[in-house]
Specification:
Elements: H1 7-32, H2 39-61, E1 64-66, E2 69-71, H3 74-83, H4 85-93, H5 96-102, H6 113-116, H7 126-139, H8 144-171, H9 179-194, H10 207-236, H11 240-258, H12 263-280, H13 285-289, H14 294-304, H15 306-311, H16 320-329, E3 331-335, E4 340-342, E5 350-356, E6 359-362, E7 369-373, E8 378-379, H17 381-386, E9 393-396, E10 400-406, H18 407-416, H19 418-436
Antiparallel strand pairs: 1-2, 3-10, 4-9, 5-8, 5-10, 6-7, 6-9
This protein binds adenosine-3',5'-cyclic-monophosphate.
């Protein structure tokens, strides 16, 4: 069995995709210009059929992903494949063009029109391209905006190609142009019609052509609207994070002006948003992650805080279970320079871990600095452990990313993890002694 993420599978999918692009562009051209498949074209057709046939066999042997797991069981893979894609792939693999051409009673020129249209079954492979784009979309390899732009250009190019081929079928070649010039003129007609420019220099001559123009004009109006709407949407969403962030700042600034908030306070608010943008692209951790299930939230928290967890002394040597429980219950908060985070004498309901930035441990009036705490250190534990008022004031020196741990959770964790209690008590005693001295 072949793993869906294996190098071989990626190579196979890329090859099939490229050949699909080639054949879906080629088939309408061959049909429209009634090109006899020989030499290189015939070889290409045979190669493509062989690769597609091999692809069908490999599809039976390649696992697939479901609910985050790779299924490698042959019978499940076969059942799933036979349900839909097998038939589409099978029909698209048969080289109808070469078969009909080879049959003596159906020589190229005399091929009944309806039978020739069977060649179009190759276009069924376009569904595979659509499926491929959907899959890329779910992998996060490309930015959603970039992928949407690529698929928009891709499908529009196909549509224009097919419409141009239809125009040639109905219009024939009254001016005796060579195939390339005829195709270029058809493309030109299609683009001017679809974009509603319609110079009128290439006009329909027969009833069928006139009807075709009417239909394409109607479809074209829709297509044009679709393109413009998509492009406008893409431009506004080039950077979703930035536009959401700008929206937020605009709203709060209007609100502050309306409420006559002092200019320096307004500046502080704007500085805070700038910090949020610089440090985390404007996203507040708690609200971004709130919809995720606990398991994913924990994994993301573990990843984001891996440096801090590795450095915090009281976490050293702690069990994974303990760290997971603490991380899940930490609440990310930001303080701006000069903010008083904890005030001496107040009752304590929480303790803090410093993820980024630094704070001063100061006297009540702020004149004496007892200590400075930085990233991976913690504070606020004394009031929680000994049920006393806060022993000092904590002031932010700069922008600080802190994690807040609630007293209730602190108490329950302490009860269940005596090692942690012993360690943190040691710290608290030492700090109290330092303060007293
Ligand atoms: P708590 O008393 O709850 O609130 C103030 C905090 O300052 C205190 O907990 C300790 O976490 C911290 N703190 C007090 N003294 C010191 C010190 N000497 N060194 C570092 N931190 C201290």
């Amino acid at each position: 069995m072949i793993h869906p993420h294996s190098r071989f599978n990626i190579f196979r999918e890329t090859l099939v995709l490229i050949l699909t692009l080639v054949i879906t562009i080629e088939v309408p051209v061959v049909l429209v210009f009634n090109i006899h498949l020989h030499g290189l074209l015939a070889v290409l057709d045979i190669i493509i059929s062989l690769v597609f046939a091999a692809d069908i066999i490999l599809n039976f042997l390649t696992g697939y992903e479901q609910d985050n797991r790779v299924v490698m069981d042959f019978s499940r893979i076969a059942k799933r494949y036979l349900k839909k894609w097998f038939w589409i792939d099978l029909v698209a693999t048969v080289p109808f063009g070469l078969i009909f051409q080879g049959l003596p009673f159906l020589q190229a020129g005399r091929l009944p029109k309806l039978l020739r249209l069977l060649r179009l079954t190759r276009l069924l492979r376009l569904l595979r391209i659509a499926q491929f784009i959907l899959r890329i979309n779910s992998t996060n390899i490309l930015k959603p905006g970039t992928l949407r732009l690529i698929s928009l250009v891709f499908w529009i190019t196909y549509a224009v190609h097919f419409i141009a081929c239809g125009w040639i079928v109905l219009g024939g070649n009254p001016n005796g142009l060579d195939n390339l010039s005829l195709y270029i003129r058809a493309l030109y007609w299609t683009v001017t019609t679809v974009t509603t420019i319609g110079y009128g220099d290439i006009i329909p001559h027969t009833n069928e052509q006139t009807l075709y123009v009417i239909v394409i004009e109607i479809i074209g109006a829709g297509m044009y609207g679709f393109i413009i709407a998509n492009i406008a949407n893409l431009i506004t969403n080039i950077d979703v994070a930035k536009s959401q962030y700008r929206d937020k700042i605009e709203k709060i600034n209007i609100f502050m002006k309306y409420k006559n908030i002092p200019a320096d306070l307004q500046k502080n608010v704007n500085d805070y948003y700038s910090y949020l943008w610089e440090s985390r692209r404007g996203y507040v951790e708690a609200s971004v992650l709130q919809d995720l299930p606990i398991s994913l939230k924990t994994r993301i928290s573990l990843f984001i805080n891996r440096d801090m967890v590795a450095k915090v002394p009281i976490f050293q040597g702690a069990s994974d279970e303990f760290i997971r429980e603490i991380l899940l219950n930490l609440e990310a908060t930001v303080f701006t320079p000069g903010d008083i985070i904890v005030r001496k004498g107040e009752i304590g309901f929480d303790m803090f871990f410093i993820s980024k930035g630094s704070v001063d441990v100061v006297s009540e009036d702020g004149s004496i600095i007892y200590a400075t705490l930085a990233s991976a250190q913690f504070f606020g534990e004394i009031a929680l452990l000994f049920s006393t008022p806060r022993t000092a004031t904590i002031r932010a020196r700069e922008y600080c990313d802190l994690y807040r741990l609630d007293k209730e959770i602190f108490d329950s964790v302490l009860e269940r993890y005596p090692d942690f209690e012993a360690k943190i008590r040691d710290y608290a005693r030492q700090r109290k002694a330092e303060l007293n001295s």
